[in-house]
What does this fold into?
Amino acid sequence: ERALPQIFQYVDQNVESYKNLLKEAVAIPSVSSDAKHRDDCVRMVEWMKEKLKEVGATTELRDIGFQTLEGKQVKLPPVLVGVLGNDTNKNTICIYGHLDVQPALKSDGWASEPFELVERDGKLFGRGSTDDKGPVLGWLHAINAYKNVGSELPVNLKFVFECMEESSSQGLDELLMEKLKPEGFFDTVDYVCISDNYWLGTTKPCITYGLRGISYYFLEIECAKMDLHSGVFGGTVHEAMSDLIYLMDKLVDKDGKILITDIYKSVAPLLETEKQLYNTIDFDPEAYRKSIDAYKLPHNAVKEQLLMHRWRYPSLSLHGIEGAHYQTGAKTVIPGKVVGKFSIRIVPNQEPEEVEKLVFDYINKKWAERGSPNKMSISAQSGRAWTEDPDHPHYQAAARATKLIYQTEPDMSREGGSIPVTITLQEASGKNVLLLPMGAGDDMAHSQNEKINVRNYIEGIKLFAAYLYEVGKLPK
Amino acid sequence: ERALPQIFQYVDQNVESYKNLLKEAVAIPSVSSDAKHRDDCVRMVEWMKEKLKEVGATTELRDIGFQTLEGKQVKLPPVLVGVLGNDTNKNTICIYGHLDVQPALKSDGWASEPFELVERDGKLFGRGSTDDKGPVLGWLHAINAYKNVGSELPVNLKFVFECMEESSSQGLDELLMEKLKPEGFFDTVDYVCISDNYWLGTTKPCITYGLRGISYYFLEIECAKMDLHSGVFGGTVHEAMSDLIYLMDKLVDKDGKILITDIYKSVAPLLETEKQLYNTIDFDPEAYRKSIDAYKLPHNAVKEQLLMHRWRYPSLSLHGIEGAHYQTGAKTVIPGKVVGKFSIRIVPNQEPEEVEKLVFDYINKKWAERGSPNKMSISAQSGRAWTEDPDHPHYQAAARATKLIYQTEPDMSREGGSIPVTITLQEASGKNVLLLPMGAGDDMAHSQNEKINVRNYIEGIKLFAAYLYEVGKLPK
Ligand SMILES: [Zn+2]
Ligand SMILES: [Zn+2]
Ligand SMILES: [Zn+2]
Ligand SMILES: [Zn+2]
It folds into this structure.
């Protein structure tokens, strides 16, 4: 117990070096969705491998094969697998994180270069600062702090750091289930921890025990084998765009209610006990509204309703259209083939196969009603929702660590997004999985001007150190 | 009259050099909508200036100022203005053409590099081959042929070749109306001729006496000041996309009927005399359907109905959405601001201001019905429809020239697209304007694999020579 105050002091003395290391990591544009940046992804993984080796871990880069990207066979970046400590008297935590990032261009509306970490008003702006390079480095700094104050690590650690998370974690499930698990990697693992999500708001910490799943749809309509000029062809073709817009308009109403037949039927009923959990959660609808500059929130901006629609009810979003005119200006094209993209965030107890069937049936029905001569097809990619028991000792240990750092009881929260690896790690290890967020609710992962607060980054390092300590105390 | 057979023979002997010159012109990627290609546009205009000088024209490059492109002030490419001959006993024709092209990438689905002219099966594939570099060079070759067979040009010529046509002809109207007209450029002009459109089908030539106008709309909806992650925010925002899709779905039905209130009210009534014109037009709906690989044509694929909906009735096309997800893959974004693009091809007697008001009123009404808290705005860019009298002596001269080359009476046709400069040149000159197409109906201007048939290119040069001869015979 004496080690922690020393560690916290050490962390406070090394703020500049933590910022510098994050700056180094952000400067590597490891955008996994873009073949042009594949070398940067590999470089990022190798960079992190060196860092893990410096704190004493044994590491290996695991090859996970190829993907088809932009029509070409492209090698996937390797997964960094590490082991630190093998004391059979200690608990072992498996830590997952990702080193890749979403695309970002300054011209998208960033106030500064996205791949140059810049501090403004106590915030560190840069792509990957909070998703997920900051948290991954947080683990590194926490281990390093134990080492530098001369204190033994209270747990054994195993690491799985991938670089394809923002591109559906391609190749990871196979590595975990078909390689690492049979090899016995998870045999000694007692707990799994992932830091790749955010606080609910901006001031109060939380621990996350549930995630929605996702069911993503590709709705394709073709009216001609090529794009057509609307001056020449307008009025003489059944346009694919108007068919697609018709179908997309049938999916969700203006208040966000999903119109797909029976879609709400299998959603887990809201029990009185669960309902009461929402009352105490720290969440300010007006601050939330202001943070995104929305005009008005749905569900009458009632806190509990907003949280439930974010965590435990499905939602449907229309993302866009591939194949149509998307640039600025006035292009007079009749697109020949368009692909509408939408997704449903699914929840307990919605099974992906069931949801996909409901959507396919509904779209087929609406398409028949439309009576268009064009060609329509729909396909889906889905992943299940996830929940754990927030009363589990692992969660209680994390709650004690959080309280030690932030002097407040953390909210037990869920999240609206999905992190598919959570379920895979639950299955691979058979152990309790916990999400321990470092960043704040306004960090804007995936958006312009992504940031992490200096406070969240630095206190987050201490939180991780305290979490390792608390899990070290759990009975073996 | 003896000159023409000699000229035709000369043209047939110089096919290779005509192809080579078109290859040179296509190789200059003069994409006017892209600031990166602005230097290529300037280079293209200068290249053409040299060619005109070589056939004896006096030329000048007219500066037309700046535009705002991608947020920057960018200089517009100059307009090439030329004069060849000033014999007061001869008629004077003003010829317009454009040297810029639509964007093109091989990855869009071209079978070969778009900016490399390639011959396959008697077709010359390349961006700009038919729109409008082929026709512009056609005039040059026709003049050159007169010169090389030692025959005097039967008319005086004036040229206006711009390089911004595919970008709304920015700066051209001002040059024509506020500079060239006051300077007296049009005082001696007797006729105006434009070759920037296509035959109706693939075998029978036509002369064009009418064009639809266009009214292009930008429908903007904003729900948040930035893009949002659907996992985090889905279910707790009124999404701009679903509002936009709702409004776009209210514009046109599956059969292409425009749903905007009163939009058909001012359309010129179909007279019995006009109706009969359609019967004799050479147009094969099945060949048309096959050329675009459509599943079924609207209007029961009835020839007259298809032609009328292409020429004399308005049509509405949905072009796309700016600000939404448009790439391949599964991006889980909730776009913060989206701009829907659609346009109406307008016809006699629809006035742009009237059409815009009907659209604005209709959208505002549907938006009020929607009851969304988001911010909506709509703006428009419009240009009038155009028609001439196909019985005018100028048209009869062009018809005689066409019959001489193709041994068939040309169809008197209209077009579905708009060429706004047609109206401006009609106003600036006060004279009869004629559209004399060179390319065929399946040339796919603005699409992938744009081409011009070798036959159309070469016979087109002869057609232009014969047209100059026929106009030379019209009484002064
Ligand atoms: Zn992440
Ligand atoms: Zn992410
Ligand atoms: Zn053109
Ligand atoms: Zn064009």
